[in-house]
Amino acid sequence: MVAWSIVASCQCRITGTTSFYVTRCLLGVIEGGFIPDVILYLSYFYKSKELPIRLSFFWGAYISTSIVSAFLAYGILHMREVTSWAGWRWLFLLEGILTGLIGVASYFYLPPSPYQTASRFRGKDGWFTEREEVVMANRILRDDPSKGDMHNRQGLGLGLL
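Request: output the structure for the sequence above.
Response:
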C-alpha cells in the first residue's frame, strides 16, 4: 500500500504522456497483488465456509470507500481556486498521502498471523489466549491441511524460482 501511495502521489507531477503511462503501469503492477493478498491473509484466520461472509464485508467496505472518495474528490477538485495547482494534481497528492498513512498504520497494527498478535501496537498479551490460538490453528488445519507448512509466508526470491 505504501509503494502504491508513493506512485499515486507522484501522479501530481505528471507532465506528459510518457510520465502518465509510466505511473499508470507502475500502479497496475503494484496493485495487482493486493486483492489476492487480502484473501490469503483472511484465510489464515477463517475456515473456507467462514471466508465468504468476511470477504463480503471487505467488498462492502471497498465499495463504501469508493463512495466516500467520490465526495472527497469533488471537494478536492475544487481546490484549484485555493492555489495555482490544478484540482486533479491535489486529488492525486492528497489521496496518495492518505493511502500511505493507512498503509503505515496497517503495517504496525495488522499481525502477520493469528499466532503472532502480541506487539507494542496490539498489546503485549496479543489478541488471543494460548488456548484460543491452539483452537484456531486446529480449526484452520482441519479445514485445509496444506496450510500446515506455511510455505506461502516465505518471501519470494531468486532461490525459490
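The CA atoms of residues 110 and 117 lie 8 Å apart.
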